[in-house]
Amino acid sequence: MEQLKTIGRELAMGSQGGGWTGQSKEFLDLVKSIGEARSKAEEDRIILREIESLRRRIAEPDVPRRRMKEYIIRLVYAEMLGHDASFGYIHAVKMTHDDSLSLKRTGYLAVTLFLSDDHDLIILIVNTIQKDLRSDNYLIVCAALVAACKLINEETIPAVLPQVVDLLAHPKEAVRKKAVMALHRFYQRSPASVSHLISNFRKRLCDNDPGVMGATLCPLFDLITADVNSYKDLVISFVSILKQVTERRLPKVYDYHQMPAPFIQIKLLKILALLGSGDKQASGHIYNVLGDLFRKCESSSNIGNAVLYECICCVSSIHPNAKLLDAAAESTSKFLKSDSHNLKYMGIDALGRLIKINPDIAEEHQLAVIDCLEDPDDTLKRKTFELLYKMTKSTNVEVIVDRMIDYMISINDNHYKTEIASRCVELAEQFAPSNQWFIQTMNKVFAHAGDLVNVRVAHNLMRLIAEGFGEDDEGADSQLRSSAVNSYLRILGEPKLPSLFLQVICWVLGEYGISDGKYSASYIIGKLCDVTEAHLCNDTVKAYAISAIMKICAFEIAAGRKVEMLPECQSLIDELSASHSTDLQQRAYELQASLCLDSQTVEIVMPLDASCEDIEVDRNLSFLNSFVQQSIEKGARPYIPESERSSMFSVSNYKSHYQHEASSHTLRFEAYELPKPAPTPATPQISVSTRITDLVPVPEMTYYTENNQASKLPPVSDASSADHGIKLHLDGVQKKWGRPTYSSSSSTSSSSEKKINGVTHLDGVSLQSRGTSYDSKGQQSEVSAEKQKLAASLFGASAGKTEKKPTSTQRAPKANTATAERPGVTGAVSPEISKQKAASSPSPDLLDLGEPITATTTTIDPFEQLEGLIGPTPGTSTLDNSVTTSEQKAPDLMALYTDTPPSSSSSIGSASGDIHSADKNLQMAKNVPAIKKGPNPQDSLQKDATARHVGVTPTGNNPNLFRDLLG
Amino acid sequence: MGIRFVLLVNKQGQTRLAQYYAEHLTLDERRALEGEIVRKCLARTEQQCSFVEHRNYKIVYRRYASLFFLVGVDNDENELAILEFIHLFVETMDRHFGNVCELDIMFHLEKAHFMLEEMVMNGCIVETSKSNILTPIQLMDKAS
């Protein structure tokens, strides 16, 4: 029986002409041994042996062409598995000359896989491509165009460009499509080379063939990304294409899982999102079709959700429309409530986009967001952190940054560590509730990711410690400083610290180490000496340390105390005086010199706590006048100003010349000017402080600016936010730096009100978070108290944000727990709360949508929404629906991903039941509904048998080798 | 750019097909990259989501029996759509080979590549109709 099947299969393959029997025994053996290799080492051995044999045989004269094709594919294997097969490249190039289409295409394929576009052999292929582009056989033209996309580089574009342009009008749609893509590739390589041909893309958009039109969207997307304004006229065309697609006017072959051309829909939505962004008129054209899409898209299939997600992206990008935002929010909540992690991920991403427009949307999903945050899945967690980052404000910054730091410590991925560290710093700088907290947070970030953060961060920290709360509160300043000193002395005990952090520590210890009298000078000096020895520190840290020692010595001398030189300090000075670094040498000598000075001189050279003083540079160097006078009297030549020295250019002339030169990079033939005298800093201390005063501006957060564009902000808050964006703002607003929080800036309250808000918030937060912890401790409900607490600290505050009374802010989380705990009473409780809220909340005009519809989006009652999460109530019917539908759909979605047959898959199970008994392997077979298009599953059995027949047997190591990929 | 690479790897981590769109990588770079991302993806459970962030791009992956399909995409790409693109690729191979399995791809590596060439150009999805994808390949089979 088994044998009969085998024969049948072989016969079938023979008639197809494409079975495994077409290949040589050697090739089958190679594939078999690679398939059975148990380890990478074994695989490497097989390939190395293969390469040796190929090297010999490929160079033999008169290799038959079919055999050569096989050799080339074996070379592809060798390279794919990581071994160099460059000896065979030339044979692949030769194969592109072959007349047979199959061989030619294999040759092109191998060449595109082997060669980068700057390889020497490319020049040999350009000629072949040119010839093939002229071929009568359209398949050969297609093969050449595909190769051109990969191989033609900037220099060779002109060689094929005219032919490619001609092919844009080829009768065959496959050729037109590929010609469009080749032109797209040339545009990517060198936009200038095809700039005169851009109009062709517009023409091809109207191609009769939907495939050509769909492909043309790719170059158009790139072009529109680069320059939106030139393509505004196409909005209507894109919308009408999208409409036609959704109305199923495209041929059936483009359907995917009953969805009409979903990939084209997605591309169109991406383009429309670009075109409609910040353009009310263009957006107006898009609203209609988006509304249709929201209605038509099935959220039961994966591809339907993909299109829905793209719709949400589009809605959040274009000029806001309340109805669409509602639909988008509803889809987002379906995603978030889904059991599928993939949909949750998309939901979190969508939520991050929507809160840019309406921050209140997040509240409804607090528990879902916290679930995602605590999920063991790293991807989901990161996405959630991204969302939290977007919704941080002064009320929840502590919770969010603490979470971020904990996570940062737990991961090893340096790339992401850097990212999350810089986000922590950014948030801490903007929203820190207190200096104390800021310094502790910075300590944590530095200690765990110190070498990954920007130097600017360190300078900001030093500046903050130096400037403190402001001039009026000296007590708090010194308290801050001594707490910084204390924490740093403690941290120095740790074995390994990042260099940047050590620099900060040294600087702070030098400036403030002995200022509160708690530590003696020799203790601090000793610690600083330890720093230079214990931590294999670099020159920069040493420089910071020795400057710090010098400062402490100077302060001691100025205070009239005697400085006793510790032996380790002396040896450090000796070591640095002989250092290879001239900077270190200079600092060491300066220290020695300052030790010999009297107290008055030292006080002038090293003034106490002078890092915040502005340094006035005397550009005229007037203090040198007497010295100059003396020298001239002694017979020195007087100084001739630069401008008078050479009649060729004045200083301004010189400058413009210099700029011109810098931009044009041309050779200059005149002699170089004398270097301009640069004022050298008198002491290292000054150099440090100048650097600090010269703070690099804190970059604006991107979402913020986008928000500015999307919603019209009152000019007052705009101006103040810009002001805050420039640097760490420490003087004007007390206890609260950074710009005003998200919602307060977009609300219409005046800036003075905001300040008060900011201060009261501070108290409100700490009180509130503490209050919740007490509340939730006693009340264990279905949703764990822990999560409730977190939710309250993340979102609760924002609920109170629209209400102006801090007291109601405190009540909010309590109410949450109450409703959660007693689902039966919710009906009674919730109207009360909502009434309360409705009474206390001012009309939240967060958005100026230009249409009288704000009520629908902004007055979503978070408590009522929350009930939807916990228990069904009559008032929230839409939400209930969404819950039930997502529950119904969940198994289907999961079935698409899971490998093991889910319990609800009886329909497919019955179909393949008999095979289950026949083949043990099938117990883990994939089951994917709706794609049982291949032949009877028995074919796979036959294939198994054929495989055994040709000598490939599954091994214990690789039992799944023969398992069918589908069904 | 969209798609940066398409990678087929079996569950032992052996590469079965590799196509790069973003830039030409040297052998060593490819080896390192593949090792890194395959380790990352193979370590994940089935309940976790099918997306992994890696450096400055994302990997969308899907498992079919013993084979993993990994697609590296830029950050602004629609992950769910890429997931379905993978499925479309598998459906297309299934239509051509009939109950496609890992061995089909190994024995017909060049054909799997040809299908991918029809579907993706310059890192963009250009063709999603199975018949349009397979017609040139069937014609080529007939001619030879």
Automatic annotation (TrEMBL), chain A:
Gene Ontology cellular component terms for the protein in this record: AP-4 adaptor complex; endomembrane system
Amino acid composition bias (Polar residues), ranges on this chain: 766-783, 807-819, 874-886
Taxonomic superkingdom: Eukaryota
InterPro entries documented for this protein: Adaptor_Complx_Large_Subunit, AP4_complex_esu, ARM-like, ARM-type_fold, Clathrin/coatomer_adapt-like_N
Domain Clathrin/coatomer adaptor adaptin-like N-terminal: 50-593
Pfam families per the UniProt record, alphabetical: Adaptin_N
One Gene Ontology biological process: intracellular protein transport
Subcellular localization(s) per the UniProt record: Endomembrane system
Family the UniProt entry places it in: Belongs to the adaptor complexes large subunit family.
Function of the molecule: Subunit of novel type of clathrin- or non-clathrin-associated protein coat involved in targeting proteins from the trans-Golgi network (TGN) to the endosomal-lysosomal system.
Protein name: AP-4 complex subunit epsilon
Organism of derivation: Ensete ventricosum (Abyssinian banana)
TrEMBL record, chain B:
Key words, A-Z: Membrane, Protein transport, Transport
Chief localisation class: membrane
Domain of life: Eukaryota
Subcellular location: Endomembrane system
SUPFAM superfamilies: SNARE-like (SSF64356)
Domain AP complex mu/sigma subunit: 3-143
Gene Ontology, cellular component aspect: cytoplasm; endomembrane system
Pfam families: Clat_adaptor_s
Transmembrane segments: none
Endoplasmic reticulum recorded as keyword: no
Family, as annotated: Belongs to the adaptor complexes small subunit family.
Record's protein name: AP complex subunit sigma
Lineage, uppermost ranks: Eukaryota, Viridiplantae, Streptophyta, Embryophyta, Tracheophyta
